Amino acid sequence: DIQMTQSPSTLSASVGDRVTITCRASQSISSWLAWYQQKPGTAPKLLIYKASSLESGVPSRFSGSGSGTEFTLTISSLQPDDFATYYCQQYDSYPLRAFGQGTKVEVK
Amino acid sequence: EVQLVESGGGLVQPGGSLRLSCAASGFTFNTYEMNWIRQAPGKGPEWVSYISSSGYSMYNVDSVKGRFTISRDNAKNSLYLQMNSLRAEDTAVYYCARDSGRLTDYWGQGTLVTVSS
Prior knowledge:
The complex is a heterodimer.
Chain A: E1 4-7, E2 10-13, E3 19-25, E4 33-38, E5 45-49, E6 53-54, E7 62-67, E8 70-75, E9 85-90, E10 98-99, E11 103-107
Parallel strand pairs in A: 2-11
Antiparallel strand pairs in A: 1-3, 3-8, 4-5, 4-9, 5-6, 7-8, 9-10, 9-11
Chain B: E1 3-7, E2 10-12, E3 18-25, E4 34-39, E5 45-51, E6 58-60, E7 68-73, E8 78-83, E9 92-100, E10 103-107, E11 111-115
Parallel strand pairs in B: 2-11
Antiparallel strand pairs in B: 1-3, 3-8, 4-5, 4-9, 5-6, 7-8, 9-10, 9-11
């Protein structure tokens, strides 16, 4: 089974900061990686797919990069609406898939 | 607008059974693969079950094999999850989710399943 590991688990930041979250896969997943944003009491929302493609309607301050086993999600200038938990998900082994444990972006 | 509405969650004793339902609308249901994904309190999501658009192909995560069965009724635009032999570790919010290609693009609002005596 492919395991996904995110770092850090918690990130303290201020509005306007550049934020980077890392996701590592236990084996190569090519570019079959997605990023989701989740706010309390709601379902995850798709932000990025195929490692670097921006989902329609998602602000351009979000970007993704990487391939193989190491990936990053970057928020270029953190906005108040971006305080949330972020999850990576591999779908290389589709239809089986796995999520990371999450990174909570909190107010510094 | 894509809508996925789950129902059927609740409190059940260990060893008990529960059937979750998901009503889909706003898209051509019988052309999309569907899933159940769960999230335990304070944890990340965990994919549970997948079913192909025709209903002929199904996959489960190892921890629920032999206990959970995913099914669909394309005539009723509905997805189901029959959960038997429930355990405390099955306690979670269960989401119905749509796949587009290999990607999970829409999720429902979730239904809470609590397994406790």
